Each structure stands twice: as C-alpha cells, then as structure tokens.
Amino acid sequence: PFSYHIPTCDSLPPSSDDSSCIMIDQPRNVSSISKISPIVENSSASSYFSLSFSFKIFISSILLCLLLLLSYCYYYNRNQHKNRLSPFSSKLSPRKQSSPLVNPIQSSPYHTPINIRQNNQLVNSSSSASAHTNLSCLNHRQTLHKSESNYQQIYFSSVNNVQHEIPFTNIRFLEEIGEGEFGRIFIGEVIDSENKCIIKTLQNENVEKEYFREIEIFRHIHHINISRLIGVCTEQKNPFLLMMYEYFSNGDLHEYLISQRSKHTRLTDFLFVSKQIVSGMIYLSDRNFLHNDLSTKNILICEHLNVKITNIGRYRQQYQLDYYNIANHLLPIRWMSIESIFSGIYSEMSDVWSFGVLLWEMFSYGIQPYYGYTNPEVIEMIRDRVLLTCPMNCPKRIYELMCSCWEEIDEQRPAFIELMQRLKELQEKPTVSPSIDDEIISLNRFESLKEKYRTLI
Fold this sequence. Notes:
ATP binds at residue 200. GO terms for molecular function: ATP binding; transmembrane receptor protein tyrosine kinase activity; Wnt-protein binding. It catalyses: L-tyrosyl-[protein] + ATP = O-phospho-L-tyrosyl-[protein] + ADP + H(+). Among the domains are: 161-247, Phosphorylase Kinase, domain 1; 253-449, Transferase(Phosphotransferase), domain 1, CATH 1.10.510.10. The protein is an alpha+beta fold. Strand 5 (171-179) and strand 6 form a beta hairpin. The protein contains eleven helices and 17 strands. The strands form seven sheets. It has a five-stranded antiparallel beta sheet with strand order 5-6-7-9-8, with helices on one face. The protein has a two-stranded antiparallel ribbon with strand order 1-2.
C-alpha cells in the first residue's frame, strides 16, 4: 500500500559531482554506492589525525609527570641526606649573603684542625690518593676522627644549652686574620667579656659535617693549657654559623719571644712555659689526639706567662712562610718529624719531635728553624740527620733534651709524660751556675739579624 520513490540519477537534475549519486540495482531493488563520498573520506582523515594528536598529548603528559616525579625524588633524597648530616640543617646551614665583615685579606686556603689518633695506632696519610707528591713520596696528613655515631645529636643537645649559645648581637668582629677550610676567621670579642675570642665562620656548606665535628671535639676538651670552645651562634637570621674560641690580647709565644729578644729572660720562665705546653699535650695524648702543628705560633700567651695551645697559626699571613705548599697543602716542614715527611706517619712521637723544635724556637728567641735554607733543602737536611744546632747560651741539658726529641727512631723519643718529669728535674736540680734561677739567657748573637726571622723560600 505504501511505496517509496528513491531518487536516481535518471530522475534528478544533473549534479555538479557525479560521485554523489546513488545507483539502483533494479532487479533486486538494492542500492549501492558507486563512489566513496569525499565528505566521508575527509571525515575519516580528520578522525585519524585527531586521535593521533590526542595520543601524543597523552604520552607527553605522562612523560612530564614522570619527569616531575623524578625531580621531586631527587631533591627529596638530597634534602634527606643533608638532614642526616645535621638534624637542624635548615637552621644551621650558612646563609649566603654578600654582607662583608671586616678588612678581607688574602690568606691560607687550607685548614687543619687538631687531629685524632684512632685506637692508639699510627696515623698514615698515604691512604689518600691525593696525598702523594713527587717530592720523596711526601704525604699530607689526613684529619682522622673518632666514630661519628650520634655526634650531631650530642653536639646539638649541648648547643641548645644557654651557656653555649651566644647571640649574634653580642659578638663584635675586630680583625680578620685569615681563611680556613670552613670560612673566614676573625679576632673578635663578646660584649661584656674581658677577653677577646677567635671566631670561625662556616661559609662553605660542603664541609658542614667537618665543622660540626670540630665543634663536637672541642666541646669535650677542657684543660687549662688548651684554648677552649667558648660557644657557638646558631641564630637563623645570621649570615653564618659561628664558633668562638679563647684568645688573648698578648698574642702568641712567637710574638712574645720577638719582643723579648733585646731583654734578658730567666731559664725558669722558659721552663715554666715548657711545662704548661707539655701538660696540655699530655692531656691530648691521653685522649688519642694529635696536634700536628705544634710550634710557638700556636701557643697563646696570657697574663703571668700562662699559655694555651691552639691551632690558628697557619691562618695568619705573617706565618705563611713557615709552610711549604705541596699539592695545595700547606705543610710545616721545619717542625715535622722524619717519618711524617717521608712516610706520612703521625703519632704522639711526631708531636714530640715538633715540641723539640718548639724548645729550640724558645731558646733562639723566635728565629725560624733552619733559617736561611729553602724548604727542599730542609727536607734533605732532615733526611741526612743534620739537626738544629744548640742556641747561644742554651744550657747543655736543655739541648740534650731537644736532641732526644729528634731521635730517628720514634720509639726512642721520650713520651710527653717523660718530658714533664725531665723538665721538673731541670727546675729542681742546680746547674753549672749556683742556681738554675740565676741562669740568664742573652741574645747578643741575634742582634745582627734584626727583623729577619723568616726564610723567603
């Protein structure tokens, strides 16, 4: 009853595009497409490109998310590592500000704190690949330390104590004396305090762990003849982390000897100073500490000839010629033992050798050991057992004590406890003079040297 009229190409007016017509198979009354419509073809292509573009966007998004995730993991692990070095690293990390302090000067790029001997064994620095040089296998000593377990927690529990924390506003910087491994070093003072102090700053965050270790070491050192740690400054608003050590306006023992060269000094005064130094070294040796730079420039002079051992001499510009720069390490060659120079071995006995040279400095009124010889020549002289000669008017028994400190075999040198006993005997027993108190040490033969106390090479 119903019929549908399907238009065909015969019944329609001519079209501008023949491909849009539909042909009828009349016998079976089935229609078929003679050609694919361009409209359908364009639609399929658009769908394909749209799908491809969406896929690229999806892949790019995934890659971007992965990149962000990797970046987050990297910085998270980095922060976790820094936090393991210090529980309060966000507070104590040096704030890098460009605010200058006082009078910057060029100084030593190297710093060596007091070292520690482990398990009563000799310290051998040859384990460091960078320690070897071309000069007779000369080795630079390494700073060895005790077990690091929980040292940060121990240190920070003490830092938070009021008696160790010094407000930054109470610290006054007076003079820059040099620069060490941690940062710039100053002489300053704490307001309302009678004495000056040594201020060590932390400006190099790469050695933050070593900085904390030094604080932990000196926090446990309490001896009347060793410069003690006064306190630290950890306020977050400060440009640097600070630690303060004792310092005295009278300067160091070398400066004192220079000032006394035209005067007369009694032997008992030298023995009094020597006994204090030995007392401090006994304290360090009993706790397995090594100094490795024992000399008059590292002895602070207080009132009444009381002294304190420190380690700031290498920072000071005036003492740069006392050090031999080998592979960017400054070595006090003229005070070093033969085994330290040629084998890189450090022990209590190498400090004993240095003490013998310190005694020679005292009785020579501050003249540089092996004055007039270059550092390479000094190394050869020590190898050939050419020892320092007896200073003018130095008692024979004192010089014998010096030479005992320079024995080639370290086991034949006296320990510091034995040196203390021998110094006490020298004070008590009479000498060639009626009394050791009457022995006067003159400096007539040194007058011609004027101010020349350092060899230029």
